[in-house]
Structure formats: C-alpha cells, structure tokens
Amino acid sequence: MKITVDREKCIGCSTCVNLCGDCFELIDGKSRVKDNVDKCESCDLDEVATACPVGAITLEK
Ligand code: SF4
Fold it and tell me: How many angstroms does the Cα of residue 14 sit away from the middle of ligand 1?
C-alpha cells in the first residue's frame, strides 16, 4: 500500500501523528509519512485517513 500526505493540503493539526506516530511525523509543521512505511501493525490507516480534517492522506491499495 502506498501512503501519501499532500503537504499542500496539510494544516499540521497533528491528528494523524497522534493516531499513529509509527507512520506519520510532523516536519516543519506538516505531516509526512515515515520512511519505508507501507503498512502498519499499530493503527488502522483507513481510520487515520478518514480522521484527517482536510483529506490530505491518500491510501493506494
Ligand atoms: S491529520 Fe491531516 S491535516 Fe492533520 S497533520 Fe495529519 S495530514 Fe496534516
């Protein structure tokens, strides 16, 4: 699965980082997907993508 964060859309609310710090990190006030993350044992990525208030997280399965 390919996980993408659209940094143009991201408002840096930290929701994704709080839901899963294994997948996402805030860099310069914007979220990014951590290196080499393509699935997650510790979160439901669909739930995290849905929780993003601006729809910046895309999952390609
Ligand atoms: S939940 Fe969305 S807007 Fe908030 S930090 Fe994550 S990607 Fe950015």
Answer: 6
Atom of ligand 1 nearest to the CA of 11: 3
Q: Is the pTM of this model over 0.85?
A: yes
- pLDDT digits 0-9 by tens, 38-47: 889 889 999 9
* CATH number of the domain that residue 29 is part of: 3.30.70.20
| Strand partners for 3 | 59
Quote the domain boundaries for residue 56: 2-60
